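Dear support,

I submitted the protein below through the web form. The confirmation email said the job was done, but the results page showed an empty box. After a refresh the structure appeared. I'm attaching both so you can tell me whether what I see now is the final result or a partial one.
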Amino acid sequence: MEAIGAESPRGASGERWPSLFIGNPLPMAIYDLGTGRILDVNDAETERYGSSRQEFLRLNLQDLVPQEDVPKFLELTRELPHFDRTGPWRQLLHDGTIIQVLITSHLVDYAGHPARLVIAEHLTDSDLDVEI
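What the results page shows now:
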């Protein structure tokens, strides 16, 4: 697994990794590979999904998808290669609204833990006509 950085994105000073994560305009999250627990989110993620960073840190991946999608979603997360782009997927906003997203993910080292960085691009109805 390629190590992005030994420090968490918010804890490393003087590196490009924190600014690439925190200031990225696309919603991004990092989750623990073993537990699915959300380890960190960037500002765009909190703005898009309507949850605070602290709320996200209490969630697991399956909390972000509609209940009926959880089995398929968990199966996918177990089978992802080192780098992957997949979708469309349904995700839940904080208020319960369901949106469609395209997921791009990459294995990372997060403060010494195997993790996955996930970028969620919101899809509009016209985007859903495109084969992925």
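Response: this is the final, complete result; the empty box was a page-load delay. Helices lie at 16-22, 43-49, 53-56, 70-79.
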